[in-house]
Amino acid sequence: MNVVVLLGAPGAGKGTQAPLLAARLEIPVVATGDLFRAAVREGTPLGLEARRFMDAGRLVPDEITVRLLLERLARPDAADGVILDGFPRTAIQAAALDAALTARGAGVGAAVLVDVPGEELVRRMSGRWICRANGHPYHEVSSPPRVAGVCDLDGSELYQRADDQPDTIRTRMDQQLGSLREVIDHYRAAGCLRSVDGLQAIDRVAADIDAQLTAAGIRGAAGSGRAAGA
Ligand SMILES: [Zn+2]
User: Residue 136: how many CB atoms within 10 A of its CB?
Assistant: First the structure.
Protein backbone atom coordinates (compact mmCIF):
# COMPACT_ATOMS: atom_id res chain seq x y z
CA MET A 1 0.00 0.00 0.00
CA ASN A 2 1.34 3.41 -1.01
CA VAL A 3 0.58 6.08 1.54
CA VAL A 4 1.61 9.45 0.13
CA VAL A 5 1.29 12.55 2.29
CA LEU A 6 0.95 15.77 0.32
CA LEU A 7 2.24 18.80 2.21
CA GLY A 8 2.02 22.48 1.40
CA ALA A 9 0.93 25.79 2.83
CA PRO A 10 -2.39 27.33 1.80
CA GLY A 11 -1.87 28.80 -1.67
CA ALA A 12 1.02 26.47 -2.55
CA GLY A 13 -1.08 24.57 -5.08
CA LYS A 14 -1.43 21.33 -3.11
CA GLY A 15 -5.18 21.30 -3.72
CA THR A 16 -4.57 21.51 -7.48
CA GLN A 17 -1.99 18.73 -7.46
CA ALA A 18 -3.84 16.22 -5.23
CA PRO A 19 -6.55 15.19 -7.74
CA LEU A 20 -4.06 15.18 -10.64
CA LEU A 21 -1.77 12.86 -8.73
CA ALA A 22 -4.69 10.65 -7.70
CA ALA A 23 -5.61 10.21 -11.36
CA ARG A 24 -2.04 9.30 -12.31
CA LEU A 25 -1.53 6.85 -9.44
CA GLU A 26 -5.13 5.53 -9.61
CA ILE A 27 -5.56 5.86 -5.86
CA PRO A 28 -8.00 8.12 -3.97
CA VAL A 29 -7.30 11.43 -2.24
CA VAL A 30 -8.34 11.28 1.39
CA ALA A 31 -9.01 14.67 2.94
CA THR A 32 -9.91 14.65 6.62
CA GLY A 33 -12.63 17.27 6.23
CA ASP A 34 -14.42 14.95 3.77
CA LEU A 35 -13.89 12.02 6.15
CA PHE A 36 -15.64 13.85 8.99
CA ARG A 37 -18.54 14.89 6.80
CA ALA A 38 -18.98 11.37 5.36
CA ALA A 39 -18.83 9.68 8.77
CA VAL A 40 -21.33 12.13 10.23
CA ARG A 41 -23.65 11.72 7.24
CA GLU A 42 -23.48 7.93 7.43
CA GLY A 43 -24.00 8.05 11.21
CA THR A 44 -21.21 5.59 11.97
CA PRO A 45 -20.25 5.23 15.66
CA LEU A 46 -17.03 7.17 15.05
CA GLY A 47 -18.98 9.73 13.04
CA LEU A 48 -21.31 10.29 15.98
CA GLU A 49 -18.31 10.71 18.28
CA ALA A 50 -16.72 13.20 15.90
CA ARG A 51 -20.00 15.07 15.64
CA ARG A 52 -20.18 15.63 19.39
CA PHE A 53 -16.94 17.62 19.16
CA MET A 54 -17.91 19.44 15.97
CA ASP A 55 -21.31 20.43 17.40
CA ALA A 56 -19.56 21.83 20.47
CA GLY A 57 -17.29 23.87 18.21
CA ARG A 58 -14.24 21.88 19.31
CA LEU A 59 -11.49 20.18 17.32
CA VAL A 60 -12.02 16.49 16.71
CA PRO A 61 -9.33 14.69 18.81
CA ASP A 62 -6.43 13.17 16.86
CA GLU A 63 -7.29 9.71 18.13
CA ILE A 64 -10.74 9.83 16.49
CA THR A 65 -9.32 11.31 13.30
CA VAL A 66 -6.72 8.55 13.03
CA ARG A 67 -9.36 5.86 13.61
CA LEU A 68 -11.52 7.43 10.89
CA LEU A 69 -8.52 7.41 8.57
CA LEU A 70 -7.82 3.75 9.30
CA GLU A 71 -11.43 2.87 8.50
CA ARG A 72 -11.07 4.74 5.23
CA LEU A 73 -7.81 2.93 4.42
CA ALA A 74 -9.54 -0.42 4.90
CA ARG A 75 -11.96 0.23 2.02
CA PRO A 76 -11.39 -1.63 -1.25
CA ASP A 77 -10.59 1.48 -3.33
CA ALA A 78 -7.69 2.24 -0.99
CA ALA A 79 -6.09 -1.20 -1.36
CA ASP A 80 -3.29 0.19 -3.58
CA GLY A 81 -2.83 3.27 -1.44
CA VAL A 82 -4.05 6.77 -0.73
CA ILE A 83 -2.95 10.37 -0.98
CA LEU A 84 -3.48 12.19 2.30
CA ASP A 85 -4.39 15.85 1.91
CA GLY A 86 -4.72 18.01 5.01
CA PHE A 87 -3.48 15.41 7.48
CA PRO A 88 -1.25 15.27 9.46
CA ARG A 89 -1.29 18.93 10.45
CA THR A 90 0.96 18.62 13.51
CA ALA A 91 3.95 16.52 14.55
CA ILE A 92 1.73 14.78 17.14
CA GLN A 93 -0.72 13.75 14.41
CA ALA A 94 2.17 12.58 12.23
CA ALA A 95 3.44 10.35 15.04
CA ALA A 96 -0.06 8.98 15.67
CA LEU A 97 -0.43 8.18 11.98
CA ASP A 98 2.96 6.42 11.90
CA ALA A 99 2.03 4.29 14.91
CA ALA A 100 -1.33 3.32 13.41
CA LEU A 101 0.16 2.43 10.02
CA THR A 102 3.05 0.49 11.56
CA ALA A 103 0.54 -1.60 13.48
CA ARG A 104 -0.96 -2.57 10.14
CA GLY A 105 2.41 -3.35 8.57
CA ALA A 106 2.28 -0.21 6.47
CA GLY A 107 3.87 3.23 6.60
CA VAL A 108 4.13 6.58 4.89
CA GLY A 109 6.05 5.91 1.67
CA ALA A 110 6.68 9.54 0.88
CA ALA A 111 5.76 12.97 2.19
CA VAL A 112 5.87 15.38 -0.72
CA LEU A 113 6.18 19.07 0.06
CA VAL A 114 4.98 21.52 -2.59
CA ASP A 115 7.41 24.22 -1.55
CA VAL A 116 6.60 27.89 -2.07
CA PRO A 117 8.36 30.74 -0.19
CA GLY A 118 6.26 32.54 2.44
CA GLU A 119 6.22 35.93 0.70
CA GLU A 120 5.02 34.36 -2.55
CA LEU A 121 2.21 32.65 -0.59
CA VAL A 122 1.20 36.02 0.85
CA ARG A 123 1.26 37.54 -2.64
CA ARG A 124 -0.91 34.71 -4.04
CA MET A 125 -3.36 34.79 -1.17
CA SER A 126 -3.61 38.57 -0.91
CA GLY A 127 -4.32 39.26 -4.57
CA ARG A 128 -8.06 38.61 -4.18
CA TRP A 129 -10.49 41.42 -4.94
CA ILE A 130 -14.26 41.25 -5.19
CA CYS A 131 -16.84 43.64 -6.61
CA ARG A 132 -19.20 45.59 -4.37
CA ALA A 133 -22.31 44.98 -6.43
CA ASN A 134 -22.28 41.19 -6.89
CA GLY A 135 -19.17 39.79 -5.23
CA HIS A 136 -17.57 38.78 -8.55
CA PRO A 137 -14.06 37.48 -7.71
CA TYR A 138 -10.81 38.70 -9.29
CA HIS A 139 -7.15 38.05 -8.67
CA GLU A 140 -4.34 40.52 -9.37
CA VAL A 141 -2.20 37.84 -10.98
CA SER A 142 -4.36 34.97 -12.21
CA SER A 143 -7.59 36.75 -13.23
CA PRO A 144 -7.20 40.55 -13.22
CA PRO A 145 -10.06 42.83 -14.31
CA ARG A 146 -9.67 44.61 -17.67
CA VAL A 147 -9.60 47.97 -15.85
CA ALA A 148 -7.88 48.05 -12.44
CA GLY A 149 -10.36 48.43 -9.59
CA VAL A 150 -13.50 48.01 -11.75
CA CYS A 151 -15.67 44.92 -12.24
CA ASP A 152 -15.74 43.69 -15.87
CA LEU A 153 -19.31 42.48 -15.54
CA ASP A 154 -21.17 45.27 -13.78
CA GLY A 155 -18.70 48.19 -13.54
CA SER A 156 -18.87 48.35 -9.74
CA GLU A 157 -15.86 49.08 -7.54
CA LEU A 158 -13.52 46.25 -6.50
CA TYR A 159 -12.40 46.00 -2.88
CA GLN A 160 -10.37 43.67 -0.64
CA ARG A 161 -12.00 41.97 2.33
CA ALA A 162 -10.12 42.35 5.63
CA ASP A 163 -9.39 38.61 5.46
CA ASP A 164 -7.66 39.05 2.10
CA GLN A 165 -5.39 41.94 3.07
CA PRO A 166 -1.64 41.19 3.20
CA ASP A 167 -1.11 41.85 6.94
CA THR A 168 -4.02 39.61 7.96
CA ILE A 169 -2.80 36.90 5.64
CA ARG A 170 0.79 37.19 6.86
CA THR A 171 -0.33 36.69 10.48
CA ARG A 172 -2.53 33.70 9.63
CA MET A 173 0.19 32.26 7.41
CA ASP A 174 2.82 32.46 10.17
CA GLN A 175 0.64 30.32 12.43
CA GLN A 176 -0.05 27.76 9.74
CA LEU A 177 3.57 27.60 8.61
CA GLY A 178 4.62 26.90 12.20
CA SER A 179 2.73 23.63 12.36
CA LEU A 180 3.63 22.77 8.75
CA ARG A 181 7.32 23.08 9.69
CA GLU A 182 6.80 20.60 12.55
CA VAL A 183 5.33 18.08 10.13
CA ILE A 184 8.11 18.68 7.58
CA ASP A 185 10.72 18.11 10.31
CA HIS A 186 8.96 14.91 11.34
CA TYR A 187 9.14 13.42 7.86
CA ARG A 188 12.66 14.72 7.25
CA ALA A 189 13.76 12.90 10.40
CA ALA A 190 11.92 9.79 9.18
CA GLY A 191 13.85 9.99 5.91
CA CYS A 192 10.81 10.16 3.63
CA LEU A 193 10.50 13.90 2.93
CA ARG A 194 10.54 14.86 -0.75
CA SER A 195 10.36 18.45 -1.89
CA VAL A 196 9.32 19.99 -5.20
CA ASP A 197 9.57 23.59 -6.34
CA GLY A 198 6.01 24.94 -6.19
CA LEU A 199 6.90 28.13 -8.07
CA GLN A 200 6.85 26.27 -11.39
CA ALA A 201 3.90 25.81 -13.75
CA ILE A 202 1.30 23.24 -12.71
CA ASP A 203 2.48 20.57 -15.18
CA ARG A 204 6.15 21.01 -14.14
CA VAL A 205 5.19 20.63 -10.47
CA ALA A 206 3.24 17.48 -11.39
CA ALA A 207 6.21 16.05 -13.32
CA ASP A 208 8.55 16.74 -10.39
CA ILE A 209 6.14 15.05 -7.97
CA ASP A 210 6.17 11.97 -10.24
CA ALA A 211 9.96 11.99 -10.38
CA GLN A 212 10.19 12.22 -6.60
CA LEU A 213 7.70 9.41 -6.07
CA THR A 214 9.52 7.20 -8.55
CA ALA A 215 12.77 7.91 -6.68
CA ALA A 216 10.95 6.89 -3.49
CA GLY A 217 9.96 3.60 -5.09
CA ILE A 218 6.29 4.55 -5.51
CA ARG A 219 5.03 3.84 -8.97
CA GLY A 220 1.74 4.83 -10.47
CA ALA A 221 -0.19 3.40 -13.36
CA ALA A 222 2.02 5.27 -15.82
CA GLY A 223 5.22 3.71 -14.55
CA SER A 224 4.01 0.21 -13.71
CA GLY A 225 3.51 -1.18 -17.21
CA ARG A 226 0.13 -2.52 -16.09
CA ALA A 227 -1.73 -0.81 -18.92
CA ALA A 228 0.59 -2.37 -21.48
CA GLY A 229 0.16 -5.80 -19.91
CA ALA A 230 3.93 -6.09 -19.50
ZN1 LIG B 1 -19.26 42.49 -10.43
Answer: 16
